[in-house]
Please model this.
Amino acid sequence: MSTEPTPAPDADTRRDADTRPGAGAETELTVRADLLEPGRRVRNWGRGEAARPTAIARPRTVDEVRATVLAARERGLEVKAIGAGHSFTPTALTDGVLVDISAIDGVLAVDAARGRVTLGAGTNLYQLPELLAPHGLALQNMGDIDRQTIAGATSTGTHGTGLAFGGLATQITALALVTAAGEVLRISERENAELLPAARVAIGALGILVELELQCVPAFLLRAVERAEPFEVVDEFRERSLAHDHFEAYWWPHTALLSTKTNTRLPAEEPYVPLGRLSGWLEDELLGNAAHALVSGLGWIAPPVTPPLNRLAAKLYGNREFTAPSYEVFTSPRRVRFREMEYAIPAEALPSAIREVRELVERKGWRISFPVELRMAAADENWLSTAHGRESAYVAVHRYWREDPSEYFTAVEAIMRAHDGRPHWGKIHTRTAADLAPAYPRFGDFLAVRDALDPDRVFANAYTRRVLGE
Ligand SMILES: Cc1cc2nc3c(=O)[nH]c(=O)nc-3n(C[C@H](O)[C@H](O)[C@H](O)COP(=O)(O)OP(=O)(O)OC[C@H]3O[C@@H](n4cnc5c(N)ncnc54)[C@H](O)[C@@H]3O)c2cc1C
Model:
């Protein structure tokens, strides 16, 4: 909780609706208690974090977001926006006012000439194929799932794979956020442009995002090739990532096998044979989810069965080729609940880091049913991006949600730290502001922007206090 008393705004003050120069309109803004419903217990997708906020607000308009912030301040409560609750860290949780902006969604504007789309910040990624189809557009790259909101995904630096592509936040060309003063701050390549690299990945610490403009690309297909390959492919990971648009791999613990995925971008007009609902269902639901639920559940009950099951899974999973619209290839349903830690390390460190993880698992005799996911992304300029200023490899470790991940994750975290690793803001880690600051050259600049926009720490929570400091 913020210890500084916050000034209580008058109930019926008139405030500028907009900080845009020349935007003279004023809006009647009342601090409305009815925006705040009594809180109930909320928990994240991974079931590892929970909170009971004092109140939950569900604003439907930007003015209601502003009123919510002012109402919370008046009561001396912290404010936190939540997206889809898919972070494994408690980054979206608060015991103050939780702001669910899911009603602020959809396409707000389209700049057809530049392929840019302005979205309500609460838009879920799974809504985008339908929303963007009439404009012939798509997201440039995506991660593994589409359940997140666009604000939540970009705020934690969510990424996919591909050395020519940055994380989702690199595609933000403009945004609007409600600040601690209850004002709308617009940041774009033309207005307050110096704040863009701070605001694109801000883990909710600068304000509540209400609009995001994204640079999209013409809709495209992906040709996917999935294979079971030897572990040694890790040594050529960067070369493969340079040679192909999107390369990633899953190493199955207790095996010498990698499931590799190589996706190639094709024009949307390219003829292709659709995968078919039955085989898509067989792969994604039966193999990807039902079989995985069985393997994870069995491994949890009887750990010794994990190595042979992993060997079987590695062979069963990857051996197919198909072409489909980009979003269908990038993402798939994840119905087996798990906990995850992911670190970004310099791209060239991947082979040695993953070998150390393999040696660790063998030495400790753990039984790990989930594969270790390996990806790469381009360097970017966003100050808190895990790929800030360096081409990055991502190493992600998982555990079934009923298993205690701490021993495995702590040991892997030590390896990643030794490789100059930066933890994903939305995935489990133990780092603190003191040891994150040296990992991010612009960390101090980000804190200065936070001091300017939120001096009273209205948007703080336990997580920002840990990773950004008080
Ligand atoms: C099954 C699964 C698969 C995943 N796959 C990937 C992957 O492939 N790649 C990857 O990088 N990550 C992945 N993640 C992590 C996930 O993308 C991030 O944790 C993401 O932040 C979750 O988005 P969300 O909408 O649920 O946001 P939340 O978890 O609800 O919130 C995340 C952060 O965003 C802030 N926030 C949300 N809305 C706003 C707003 N309107 N204004 C300001 N701040 C806001 C919150 O306060 C919080 O700090 C995965 C997670 C799961 C559970």
